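Reading group handout, session on sequence-to-structure problems. Before we discuss, look at one worked example. The prompt was deliberately terse, the way you'd type it at a terminal:

> structure Complex I assembly factor TIMMDC1, mitochondrial

The input record follows.
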Amino acid sequence: MFRILNKKILFGTTLRLTPAAIIPFFNTPNKNDIDNLKTNPKDGPITGWERVRQMFTVNEDDVISIELHNVIQASLFGAFVGVCYGGFLKSKDAYISFLENNQATIFKSTFEAKRKLQDYVTIAFAKGAVRWGWRLFIFTGMYTLIATTISIYRDKNSVLEYVVAGAVTGSLYKVNLGLAATLVGAGLGAALSLIAGIVIIGILKISGVSMADIRRSLYGLKEMREEQYNQGVEKHAKEKHDNLTKHHDQLVESKGKTKVDEL
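And the output record:
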């Protein structure tokens, strides 16, 4: 029962967050992408540093840029994957360990045995989720932020930002293990990012879809969700207000205006 419930939660949440999974890899030029990017007052194009600075600024409505929003979404998705991976991995080990270490244990009832097993597995799940969740949150956020920043500075998309982001992130992930481990992490991260970058750019070339369109579509989904939420809140508040008004009118009609004011 516990495993079935975990699978349902994992698959259901994954489907809801699927759009965010695209974010860490699709970091393209924002040439026609950013509505809140300002043009240079001069006739010439804005510089790379100006584009980067605008990425970390908010518009007149205090809304962050689309790129920074994508970085945050990618970080949250990485945290979600880390929570699921670490939690289910540790809970599985805890389940097996509990059965092996308590074969000769005498419990008062079946209910007590199931409760202790559930508590043991839940604690293990929480420990594994915390351990892997914050790591993948930082790893994914750092990778996406570096790749996106390089792409915006260069104003184009290529394999370079993937390789640099992978090398930097891989080296920082292993920096506490010494120089040799740092170099190995940088090389491995660069190699994996090179493969991923080639595949992604190849798919984009074949499909003919720019990442500007994809980023706008993902951001549009966010705006649609917020609009639906605001409409729901406004509708609920209006219905509640109408009910209060009707109740007030009924009191006025039955008791009179003077008595209502005295109340």
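Points for discussion. First: The mean pLDDT is 75. Second: The CA atoms of residues 90 and 128 lie 5 Å apart.
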